[in-house]
Design goal:
By secondary structure, the chain is an alpha/beta fold. The protein has 10 helices and 10 strands. It has helices at about 55-60, 95-100, 115-125, 130-145, 150, 165-175, 195-205, 220-225, 245-250, 255-260, and strands at about 15-25, 30-40, 45-50, 75-80, 85, 100-105, 180-185, 210-215, 230-235, 235-245. β4 and β5 form a beta hairpin. Bound molecules: adenosine-5'-triphosphate (ATP). The site of adenosine-5'-triphosphate has 13 residues, from β2 and α1.
């Protein structure tokens, strides 16, 4: 079956990159994430699925402390990256977000040139010693995002002038430019047409050679196509987590089965 092609490529590793233990998230009195325990593997695409409002995005945002920016939000429990507590007061969230990059639902390039969109992160994190090195990072990142050939002759043009699919690949290039170890993607294809979606899905699979990718998606077809592992969330609980093929063909929990067969959500 063609749809399963990407996800059936072999897993590269069983190494744990991120581990969450007893994670709770509250927005004021709203208990949005309830006692979630999960281990996210390195060099693997993990899909978060579940009905609207089940907490997928909230949990994703815990993994690079994006929830810190929401005043009513409180996170409890332990989340580690390579065994280190990411909520430790010693951890600088800006440095953390360079290691755990993020791509959002709506492409959000800076109102700057294509070049500067990519160069921004490497500049603030001091990843290039001179202009030649920065040029190299920009080219490499755009190539990794499969965008170089389309934009190489107009690097000084504004990023917001690109098509939606190109803008999203620009945002992926921007995220990979700081050499992250984990890439979080919150419904990255929801604003894209089927051709751009297919390009981004192909890209996600290529990126997994270098790091761990976590994707929130409403599309079960997409989860089945791109991920090797799937986590099903329901009402703030992580109901089931395992190999994507097993979750979609032989789920253990009746709530997972109801969702994948279209009875809830
Ligand atoms: N910024 C916020 N402030 C207050 N409550 C929030 C905020 N973001 C999410 N919530 C609440 O947290 C719960 C989980 O929402 P979340 O957006 O994480 O779910 P989701 O599964 O990603 O949903 P969707 O698929 O619709 O994007 C919901 O009850 C939601 O109303």
């Amino acid at each position: 079956m063609n749809d399963m092609r990407i996800s059936e490529r072999l897993l590269d590793t069983n190494e744990i990159k991120i581990a969450a233990s007893k994670v709770q998230v509250f927005y004021g009195d709203n208990h949005a994430i309830k006692d979630v325990n999960v281990e996210i593997r390195d060099k693997t695409v993990t899909a978060f699925i579940g009905p609207s409002g089940c907490g997928k995005s909230t949990f994703l945002r815990c993994l690079n402390r994006m929830n810190d920016t929401i005043p009513s939000c409180r996170v409890e429990g332990l989340i580690t990256l390579d065994g280190e507590d990411i909520y430790d007061p010693k951890v600088d969230p800006v440095q953390l977000r360079a290691r755990v990059g993020m791509v959002f639902q709506k492409p959000n390039p800076f109102p700057k040139s294509i070049y500067d969109n990519i160069a921004y992160g490497p500049r603030i994190h001091g990843l290039a010693r001179n202009k030649a090195e920065l040029d190299e990072i920009v080219e490499k990142s755009l190539r990794r995002a499969a965008l170089w050939d389309e934009v190489k002759d107009r690097l000084s043009a504004t990023g917001t002038g690109l098509s939606g699919g190109q803008q999203q690949r620009l945002c992926i290039a921007r995220a990979v430019a700081t050499e992250p170890e984990v890439l979080l993607m919150d419904e990255p294809c929801s604003a894209l047409d089927p051709i751009a979606t297919a390009q981004v899905e192909e890209l996600i699979d290529e990126l997994r050679a270098q790091f761990s990718v976590i994707i929130v998606t409403h599309s079960m077809q997409q989860a089945a196509r791109v991920s090797q592992r799937t986590a099903f969330f329901h009402l703030g609980n992580l109901v089931e987590y395992g190999e994507t093929g097993q979750i979609f063909t032989n789920p253990e929990d009746p709530r997972t089965e109801s969702y994948i067969t279209g009875r809830i959500g």
